[in-house]
Amino acid sequence: MDSSKLGSVPEEEQHRKESNKPVVSAFASLPDRRPTKSSEKYSPLDWSGFFDREEDVCIPDSNDVFHLYMAGTEGPVVFCLHGGGYSGLSFALSASKIKEKARVVAMDLRGHGKSSTENDLDLSIETMCNDVFAVLKALYGDSPPAIVLVGHSMGGSVAVHIAAKKTLRSLAGLVVVDVVEGTAMASLVHMQKILSGRMQHFSSIEKAIPEFDAGTMMGGYDLVEYPLQMGRIKARIKGAIKISQINAAI
């Protein structure tokens, strides 16, 4: 019998069709994000709509000054540590809710936001842990209130290491967000390269905001603060101003 004249059975035909389909990986596509129109208008929001006050903490026997955003008057202190390339303003929306039942302190870590230190590029885990301890000491002395550490990404690594030291006796809780300890720690050594490769100037605040909206996976979220290049970028608007002072909302 000439097998070339025989037709294929339905099962074979179905298998042939399926085998010709391209294999689609779960990682082949990115999450949906809101399209950005070139004509879309952006404007900054002020931090005071979310926090109650800001404060600079000077560390004794050094030239280190750490900037804090604070909210609330009663209850435990939710002490927030942001991720690499962000600032304390990352927690603005959370602070506006948490302050109803607790106090919030969101710290600009070394080399970020409005904080200024003798060596902004020293982002070793030991140095950043010591920075947090120094700020807590300056705020509360030897009798700190109940503290809940909240850390995102790099800040999560710092929070975990602080908790592991077991020297913060008033530690009441630990929350880490989007952090893989090994990966986050390994990335710290690359932070200097990120700092040196950042954009330096924009013609206006409004033009700076969509630039970072397009460069992050956060499009479509109501964020008050975007990763504005470690808070060190300057926009030439009536002279040089720090974009760390801009609270960009989309």
Automatic annotation (TrEMBL):
<dbReference type="GO" id="GO:0051723">
    <property type="term" value="F:protein methylesterase activity"/>
</dbReference>
<dbReference type="InterPro" id="IPR016812">
    <property type="entry name" value="PPase_methylesterase_euk"/>
</dbReference>
<dbReference type="InterPro" id="IPR029058">
    <property type="entry name" value="AB_hydrolase_fold"/>
</dbReference>
<feature type="domain" description="AB hydrolase-1">
    <location>
        <begin position="78"/>
        <end position="191"/>
    </location>
</feature>
<feature type="region of interest" description="Disordered">
    <location>
        <begin position="1"/>
        <end position="42"/>
    </location>
</feature>
<dbReference type="Pfam" id="PF12697">
    <property type="entry name" value="Abhydrolase_6"/>
</dbReference>
<dbReference type="InterPro" id="IPR000073">
    <property type="entry name" value="AB_hydrolase_1"/>
</dbReference>
<protein>
    <recommendedName>
        <fullName>protein phosphatase methylesterase-1</fullName>
        <ecNumber>3.1.1.89</ecNumber>
    </recommendedName>
</protein>
<comment type="similarity">
    <text>Belongs to the AB hydrolase superfamily.</text>
</comment>
<keyword id="KW-0719">Serine esterase</keyword>
<keyword id="KW-0378">Hydrolase</keyword>
<feature type="compositionally biased region" description="Basic and acidic residues">
    <location>
        <begin position="31"/>
        <end position="40"/>
    </location>
</feature>
